[in-house]
Every structure is written in C-alpha cells, then in structure tokens.
Amino acid sequence: MTWDFQTDPDFQQKLDWAATFVREDVEPLQYVLDSAYDVANPLFQRLVRPLQAEVRRQKLWACHLEPELGGEGYGQVKLALLNEILGRARFAPVVFGAQAPDSGNAEILARFGTPEQKERFLKPLLANEIVSAFSMTEPQGGSDPTQFRTMAVADGDDWVINGEKWFISSGPFAAFHIVMAVTDPEAKPVNRLSMLLVPADTPGIETLRVSSIAGHRTPSHSYFRYTDVRVPRASMLGAPGQGFAVAQTRLGGGRVHHAMRTLGEAQKAFDMVCERVISRQAQGGRLADKQMVQEKIADSWIEIEQFRLLLMRTAWRIDHYNDYLKVRRDIAAIKVQMPKLLHDVVARALHLHGAYGISDELPFLGMIANSYVMGLADGPTELHKVTVARQTLRDYTPSPDLFPDYSLPSRQAAADEKFRDLLEGLALEAAHG
Ligand SMILES: Cc1cc2nc3c(=O)[nH]c(=O)nc-3n(C[C@H](O)[C@H](O)[C@H](O)COP(=O)(O)OP(=O)(O)OC[C@H]3O[C@@H](n4cnc5c(N)ncnc54)[C@H](O)[C@@H]3O)c2cc1C
Questions:
Q1: What is the dihedral of CA 123, 75, 267, 58, to 10 degrees?
Q2: CATH superfamily of 245-393
Q3: Is 240 helix (H, G, I), strand (E, B) or coil?
Q4: Which residue ranges run through the membrane (predicted)?
C-alpha cells in the first residue's frame, strides 16, 4: 500500500530552484511587460527569451507535454507542485512553456494534427515563437453549446466558416485559431460540432472588438466575425462531429493546471496577510493577537490546505487512471472550489490590510477579479456543480418503498430480525431465572 505525502528529493531540488527563479527573475516581468501573448514585442523577446532558455536548461520547459513533444512527461502530481509555484507570477506560465490557451491547443494539434499542420503550427507553438487562440464561445451563448451558431459547410475541397466568436483569449496575437463550428445541425447536440484549424491571416476573419479583463492593461480578448472563411478539408481536427471529444483533450488537463496556479496565487495573498498581521499594531497590540484576526488566518490556512489535498488527489487519480471519465467529478469539484478559494482568501487579505488593501498599491483587487475569471473561463461554476452532483448520484439507486430502508423504524425491524434468535433466547433465559 502506498499513501504518501512526500516529494522525492531530486524533484524537490527542481521545485526549490523554480521557486527562487520565479520570485527573483520572473515576477519582475509583470511590472515592465503587459501582455504575455505579445511574443513579437521586442521587450518581450529581450526579457523573456533568456529566461525560457534557462528553464529549458533546467529541464522544466513545457512539462505538461510528453517527451516526444519536448516536455518531460512528469505527470500531473509533479505538475501540480510546479504549477503552484508558477501561480505566483503572471509571466511564469509563458516562461515555463505552459501558457493557456497554447498548452491545450498544442495537445490538440499533437493528437489530431496532420504532419504538415504539426510542422507549420505545432513546432513554433511549442517553441513559443507563435501563440494561438481557442475560438469556441459565442455572444448569444457560452455555457450552452447548443446555442452555438457558427457553421462550417463543406464546399468542394474546403470547409467554409461563417459566424461570430467572442472572449477569445490571445485573439489579437494569435497565428492560428482552433474554431469550434457546427457541421451537422441535425445531429444529437453532442455530435453537432467539429474543430477546425484556421490560420489567422485567412481572408474573411474580422475583429469586431477587443476587450480587457479587469486588472490587465492590454486588451487581449477578441470578438471575431468569420465571413466565408475558407480552409482545406484537412483543417478538421478529429472526425466530423467530434468537437466535444477533441475539446476534452485540452479542457481536462487545462482545468487542473489553472487550479494549481490559482492555489499558488491564493497562497501568495495569504503570505502577504500573514506578514501584515504580525507587523501592524492596533489598540494596544499586534493585529495577529486579535481573535477575530486569528479566525481569518485560521480559516484561510484550512481552506488552502483542504484545496491542496483535493488537488493533489485529483492529480494523482489522473496519473493513476489515465482515463478522463474516471476523474471527471474530481476535476469538476476542483473547478467549483478554485474561484471560491481565491476569492475568500484574497478578500480576507484585502480586508486585513485596511484602506491600503483596496488601493492600487496592492494586488488584491486584481486577484479578486481573477477569482471571477476562474469561475467563468472554463465554464461557469454552476455547470461544474451539476457534473459533481450527477456523477455522484448515479452511484445510488432509488428506494423501492415509500419509507426508505434507512428510516429508523426500518432499521429497528431489520435489527430485530437479525438478532431475533439471540434476543428470544436471552428473553427465555431471563424468564427461567
Ligand atoms: C478571461 C476569460 C477568458 C476566456 N477565454 C476564452 C477563450 O479563449 N475561448 C473561448 O471560446 N471562450 C473564452 N472565454 C469565455 C468562457 O468560456 C465563457 O465566459 C463561459 O463559457 C461562460 O459563457 P458566457 O460568458 O456566455 O456565460 P453565460 O452562458 O451567459 O452564463 C452566464 C451565467 O449564467 C449562469 N448559468 C449559465 N448556465 C447555467 C446553468 N445551466 N445552470 C445554472 N446557471 C447557469 C451562470 O451563473 C453563468 O455565469 C473566456 C472568458 C473569460 C472571462
């Protein structure tokens, strides 16, 4: 039996190196660079490329990938430990070759791309020479894919795409889009959609707007219109109608990686508030000595530790089963808990910093905004709760009777029946002295 909470010493050394590197060399980037997607920016090239080279030398580049794609094949448990460190700095994912949406798009191309697509798009994507977009959400419906209207229609040797997509991360910088489009409107909802690889310079792609998310200066979420966008038949990734199955390739792992980094962000806010409450005086003593402050510190610590355990167990189960269906509930559960953890821990940290906490001199408001992003970007929390509940309830069977077997009278009757001989024997013995 193995039930272990230790990190092996060799990997711990790598984690220690990563923690120092992220703190000293990567975190400063976010104060001089704005967008982690703008790889053509000369300052990005100057500052980020040498750090990426150092990460490669340390064998920590794109660790989510298998060795044949240039990763280390570490598995999710090691990734969890590493990603918690990466969550402490905004540029850490790009410096370590693990930036969304590129990380998930690379997994799709690796699995479903043709050799020519891999050469033209996957290779430079893995090297972070280009970035990419995952184009799925539509203005009239994001959570519910049956609302998607973007169509891809076969025409000769091509697919012709028409429709609109919005909130597409990295849109202004992407060299290609992976577009989710309806290819068979008459099929069951799960078989209506397909994925297509569309180079960003294909005629017919128009940017209607680019939105900013709170806390980021550079707008980087595009609203695209596709008008008669024509791509060859071979642009389809996976079989027609298999868009959802292909999407799972990226969303399963990606959701866990987001959660791991969110944990790192929450831990960072917690470290700040711990330093603050032992430094600040109020009404004759340290903040840290007030019981209502201690309650907030205790609640945050407990929530962080609970979440880390749930995450690590999920990571372990992904490695152990290597079967998405077996870990669907675990992944949905961490998706539910992730925004709440970040929100609650950061809100306490903000509050305990007083006015300073809500000012633009501290990062808490941006972190709170990020907690809302985390509750939406991979689908809203409500949908993940539905998954947890459905997966849980299917292991139960309905009661055949009006009064359930677990009612106390039923239990009493069952116990009386089970022990009847013994109880009758004892009663007889008692009657006969
Ligand atoms: C920062 C950021 C980056 C993003 N990047 C991308 C990207 O790169 N590519 C992409 O395709 N999309 C992206 N998105 C979009 C994201 O996938 C959608 O926002 C998400 O799927 C929710 O869709 P919606 O915004 O249309 O919300 P809606 O579907 O309108 O839902 C709004 C709210 O309604 C409630 N709700 C919805 N359905 C249910 C239900 N069944 N039961 C109960 N309540 C429900 C929830 O509270 C939900 O938050 C991004 C979003 C953000 C915020």
A1: -60
A2: Butyryl-CoA Dehydrogenase, subunit A, domain 3 (1.20.140.10)
A3: coil
A4: none
- Which one-letter DSSP state was computed for residue 40? T
Q: Which residue from 112, 114, 83 is spatially nearest to 100, judged by alpha carbons? A: 83
Topology, domain 131-241: Butyryl-CoA Dehydrogenase, subunit A; domain 2 (2.40.110)
328 contacts: CB under 8 Å, gap ≥ 6: 387, 391
Residue 254 CB–ligand 1 contact under 6 Å: no
Burial per residue of 395-422, b for 16 or more beta-carbon CB atoms within 10 angstroms, e otherwise: eeeeeeeeeeeeeeeeeeeeeeeeeeee
DSSP H or E segment with residue 76: helix 76-86
Over residues 270-320, the pLDDT tens digits come to 999 999 999 999 999 999 999 999 999 999 999 999 999 999 999 999 989
Query: Is the pLDDT assigned to residue 74 strictly greater than 90?
Result: no
CA distance 314 to 253: 11
Ligand 1 touching residue 219 (CB < 6 A): no
List the one residue out of 144, 190, 178, 309 whose CA is nearest residue 250: 178
Ligand 1 atom nearest to 373, measured from its CA: 53
Q: Give the C-alpha separation, 92 to 320, whole Å.
A: 27
Question: What CA dihedral angle connects 174, 176, 178 and 180, to 10 degrees?
Answer: 90
pLDDT digits (tens, 9 = 90+) for 212-251: 987 677 889 999 999 999 999 999 999 999 998 888 766 5
Distance of alpha carbon 80 from alpha carbon 297, whole angstroms: 24
Q: Is 134 in the pocket of ligand 1 (CB under 6 A)?
A: yes
Assigned token pair, 304: 């962080």
User: Would you tell me how many other CB atoms lie within 10 Å of the CB of residue 334?
Assistant: 23
Ligand 1 proximity of 369 Cβ (cutoff 6 Å): no
CATH architecture observed for domain 9-98: Orthogonal Bundle (1.10)
Q: Residue with the nearest Cα to atom 45 of ligand 1? A: 382
Burial label for 169, CB within 10 Å (0-12, 13-18, 19+), is buried
Beta bridge partners of 206: 225
Residue carrying structure tokens 């013994």: 422
